[in-house]
Amino acid sequence: MAEIILKNISKKFKEEEVVKNLNVTIRDGSFTVLVGPSGCGKSTTLRMIAGLEQQSSGDIWIGDECVNDLPPGKRNIAMVFQNYALYPTMTVRGNIEFGLKNKKVPKKEREILIREISEIVGLTDYLDKKPNKLSGGQRQRVALARAMVKKPKVFILDEPLSNLDAKLRSQMRSELIQLHKKLGTTFVYVTHDQVEAMSMGDEIAILNKGTIQQMGSPMNVYHEPNNIFTAEFIGTPAMNIFEYNKVKDHLSNLSRKVKFVGFRPEHALLALTEKEKDAGYLKLASEIITMETLGAETIYTVKNEAGVMHIKSFIPPFENAKELLVSIPYEKLYFFDQEGKRYRSVSTRQMDTALAGGA
Amino acid sequence: MTWNKIRPYLMISPAILVFSLFFIYPICYMIYLSMHDWNFVSPEKNFVGTANFTNLVSEKEFIEVMQNTFVYTALTVSLTIIIALILAVWLNKSGTIYGFVQGAIFSPHIISLVSISMLWMWLMDTDYGLLNWFLNLFGLPSVPWLTDPSTSLLSLAIVAIWKGIGFNTLIFIAGLQSIPRDIYEAAALDGTNRIRTFIKLTLPMLSPTLFFLTIIGIINSFQVFETISIMTQGGPINSTNTFVYYIYEYGFRFFKIGYASAAGVILLVIISIFTIMYFRLLARRVHYQ
Q: In what residue span(s) does the ABC transmembrane type-1 domain sit (chain B) (predicted)?
C-alpha cells in the first residue's frame, strides 16, 4: 500500500505537451479515478506512474520512494490493460504465475497463491485454458488475477471495462469496488466514462487538455464544480449552461463578472401553468422538443429563450403537453465567469432582491 | 434443375482445364515416363516397371545427391532463419538507418540468380577473388571456395543464405510488428528480463512465421538449380550435385528421360510430404491468435 505523489509532472511527445505540470496526490488506499475526454492525458499519466512512459520533467513518488529511474517491474505496481494484454501462448495458470516465476517464487508458494487468487476471481475451472478460449469477462478476470497475485502496492487500471458489454460492465464495476474494499490497496483507475468514475471512485480527478480541472469526492465534484468543464463533464444529462445575457430579464443586477448560468437537469421543477407567484425561482416558459420516458424518470428536451436544455423529472410525464413552465430555485443555480470559472460570490439573498425588480 | 447442378462445374471448368493441362498432366506424364526407358527422340518408349527407381536408389551417385541436397537444405534453412531472426529483432525499430539496412539486405532477393551466381563466382575465386584477398590481408590462408569438395557445398549455401536473408528478415519483421505492444508492457510490469521475454513471448508469438519460413525455405532449397548450374555444375567430384541439377543432367544432357523422371517423382514425394506437413501442422501445433 502506498501513496502516489506526482510533482510538477509534464510529458511532451515531440512538440506536443500532453500533460502539463501536473501535481496530484493519490491517497494511500484510495480508489482514485482519472477521468476526462480522449486525449486529455489521463492514460499517459497512468503510464508514467507505471513506468511505461518516461515523464519529460517532474518527480513521481510511490510510497516514500522516488521511482523516476525505476523500471516498471521494480515499481511494485500491477496494471490491468484495456485489451487485457494476456500472454496468448500461455494458459490462464501460465499467465497468472509468469510474474511470480520472474520473481523466483518457489513452486509450492506459487500454487497456493494461484489457488487463492483464482478462487477470488472465479477462474478455478479455467486454469488450463488458453485466453482465446475465454469470454471477455473471463479474460478480464485473468488480467485481474495476474495483477492481484503479485500483491502490489498499487493497482493501475487503464479503461479495463471498455471492452465489455453493458451488463457485464456494471457487474464487473461492482466486483471491482468490492475487490478494492477487500484488498485495501491503492487503485488508480482511468476511464473516459463519467458514470464509471462517479460510481467507482472515492476520489475523482477530472482532466482536460493535460491539466487537472478538479479533484475531489464524486459528490463534491458533482455539486461543487469549479468550472464549466467539470460541470458539463460530470452528470447525465449534462448540466444546462447558458449565457447570462439571455436570461438577464429574469435575473438582473448580478455581478458583471457573471457570464454563464447553469443548473442540473434534476433541479428544475416542471408545471403546466404558473400556480402561484412564489419568489425564489428562475421561471422559463418552454416548448417541449422531445420527451424520453424512462420509467422512474422522464427526460425532457425543451427550448426557451435561454436555449435548448434538458430537464430530468421524477413526476409522472406530461403526456400531451406542448409547453411547460420550467422553474429553477435560485439556490440551485451555478454561475460562471468569462473563462468558465465558477463564480461563487452570488448569494441567494442577493438574487431575491435582484428579482424583485427584474421579473 | 439439372442446369443448377451443372452450372458450378461449368463455372470452374476453365480453371480446372488450365490446372489439368499445366499441373496434373505433366505430373501424370512424369510418373508415366518414370516407368519407361526413353531417350527423348526415339518413337518408342520401353516399359521397364520400377527398374528406374531400384537403379536410382542403389546408385552411389544418387545417394550422394540426396545427401548433398539434405545437407545443403539443413545448412541454408537453419542459418538463414537464425541470422534473419537476429537481424529482424535488431531492425524492428523506426529510423532512417534501420529502413536503409532493411532495404539493403532485401535487395539480393530481387536480383536474378544468374547475376548473383556470376558475382559470387568472382568473389569466391580462389586466386583473384575478393574473399580470399580479404583473408590474405589478415594473414589467413586462401580458401578454395568452389574448387574443393569439402567447401563447395558450404560455399553454395552461403550464396543462398545471402540471397534469402532479406526476404526472411522482412517476413520476421512483419511478424514481430503484429505482436501487440501491450503484451510487452505487461511483461515489463511483471519484471521480465529481455532474454526471458524473447523466449517466452516473442518466439511463441512468432511461431507461425517461423514455421512458414522453415517450410518455404526447405521447399525452395530442395529445388536449388541456377547457382549450381552456373557456379559448379555439380562438381567438384559430385560434391554439389543436388536433386534438380541431377534431374536436369540426366534428362537433358544424357537423355535418360525415364531415369530423370524417376528422380523427379522422388523429389515430388519429398516436397509433397513437407507441404502436407505444413498444412497439417499449421492447423494444429502452431499458435495463432
A: 66-278
